[in-house]
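Incident log, entry 3
Record: Microtubule associated protein (337 residues)
Problem: checksum mismatch between cached and fresh output.
Input:
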Amino acid sequence: MAATPSRPPANAFVRGMRKVYNPIGFTKGYNFTLFFIFGGAMLGFTLARFQYLSYSGIFCGDDAQNFDCYHYDKFTVQKAGIILHLAAVLPAGFLACFQFVPAIRHKAIIVHRINGYIILLLSLVSTAGAFMVARHSFGGGLDVQVVVGVLAIMFIGSLAISYYNVKRLQLEQHRAWMLRAWFYAGCIITSRIAWIAIASITSNQGYYYFISCEQLASRFLLGSQASTIASFPQCEAYFQGRNATLLVPIEASMTDDGPLGPQAALNTGFGGAIWLALFIHAIGVEFYLQLTPAESERLRNVSYQRQVEAGMKHPGRAGLTADRIGDSAVWVPEEEK
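Fresh output:
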């Protein structure tokens, strides 16, 4: 039989990149590339938004042109919710990036475990904060409220399944569900791109966002009461004390000089943007998992060995595996094939 030809040596670029990603535990360039793209996006996004922890200074300061700040300032629960959400989700997203670094998982397992527990706690707290503000955040439409609920179920549900599997030493399922959880959570980053695109497409196309005259007066007073009434005659009744709950329509327009049109365009488009981003991420993570079967198989064999050592029943499938709860063929460890 002819000898199998040896693999040609890597070029200078690949050799150089291996010196970058091999020390942090990556053995394959495509894995490092995906980590660099998605992990880097998460890291950059969270770092850029740590400034929002200054609620009164930046997030809802005097210069903040944000419809939502009216509700946060008016309702104590809303303000507590957004502060709770930001204070938990930003460090959780930051710390989660390091959970996917192989060198930490393999050589600093205690760091990986402690960091994981901190992330789980922060994730629960941040989700509770998101529920507290869902009624008015980004317009608070039913599309926004429903997607917050769906995303919370997918995110926390995936974390719970991942946690169960790691306690059962089912490592490949722990990896898969943890990847799902953070891909779902990462849709908030992609939604920003879709958000701007949808707002631009729907701008000046007959879409309107309704706000109260009280909300308009509290943060978007157009110079004076007189100028505000000139632009929105309906608000005269509010300023005269005859109707405190009057609503006025603001056309969604990214081309307006003032903040009202662009804010209306952004609020009307957010629900659709987050739904679209969640769909993309939910499909994308399944593609990734299907394209990395070798890593899944390697981890399942490691799981088998650890479950045997721990004296568990059904080694290799002690967690939530398809052959344990479904009708697929029973998995066989590599040493028995």
